[in-house]
Amino acid sequence: MVLWCSARYASKGRAAVGVLLKQTFDSTRGSTTRPATQKLYFSLTRIQSSYYSSSTEPAKTLLSVNELKSLLESDKKIRLLECGPNLSIKELYDEAHIGGSTFFNVGACSELKNELCLKYMLPDPALFSDYVEQLGVSNDSHVVVCERHDKGFFYAPRVWWMFRVFGHDQVSILSGGLGKWLAAGNALTRATTHVQRGNFRAEYRPELVRSYNDIEKLVIDGSLSKSVQLVDARSQGRFEGWEQVPGEAVGAGHVPGSISLHYAAFMDPFTKTMRSEDDLEKILKFKGVDLNKPIVATCGQGITACFISLAAFLLGKKDVPVYDGSWNEWFVRAKKEHIQELE
After folding, report:
1. Tens digit of pLDDT for each residue in 246-305?
2. Same domain, 325 and 256
3. What residues form the membrane-spanning segments (predicted)?
4. Are residues 123 and 193 in the same domain?
5. Scanning 98, 142, 214, 324, which has the fewest C-beta atoms within 10 Å of its C-beta?
6. Which residues are annotated as catalytic?
């Protein structure tokens, strides 16, 4: 679809944003109840965190290729994770990857036994800790996430968000992903990366996650039209109800009171990197998103919602949670009156 600005908004500031947003976007693309054992683990890991958490300053969020190369040469605590959604991407990784990297399978590092069989749900802290330890990650590691998707960004913001949810602020994203690495003339390798198992203890941050019950409460008490901003990263067509993704079981539409802001608006379509902070701020303002008010991010499956959280983080708002189940959960569980389409 094409997201555009009408002429009646062609004031100096809004016209500039119209240029940024007038581009073709690809459409993209779930929380269930947590067992009591997970809740107990969450409490225990918060106690453990005082010992395991690093006292260093948070890492720079976006890294250039040159910055990554410098870190790989000088910092033994760097753990480079190339990411993708499944084993088919892992097979591509096995064929050619950045030397020293390991593969973060977003589909594998998720809670698969949820009641609605939703994909990519946030795992519990024990599963996440075990998974990243196998990749050589420890609490004192500087994690750098590298996107393998040809968009430059897609799954990387989700991995970045997951590390933050589990208390790890030493996490960065390679701006432009693998494509930028190759464009700079850097080589790949087929050599298997052997890492020593890490020592990672998660500190769950519930303030960065929202559940179905959280969103339902906001809808029922009217908060979405008063104070809290629910920003939806899906395409305009899926949000308004006239675009259906082939093969998707859920219908189109949106949570009443939510705001549509497609994730692709945050990326430069030519460089496949995040736009400048100035542009990000203009885009959010144009869509009526106020960084001084509470924001919750949502999308189809909890993946591209992380773009909303990332963009806000880059602008200094570090507390934007993601509705983990997102639309795939909402469409199945919500009452009919809480599923809205454009009239």
Report:
1. 666 678 899 999 999 999 999 999 999 999 999 999 999 999 999 999 999 999 999 999
2. yes
3. none
4. yes
5. 214
6. 299
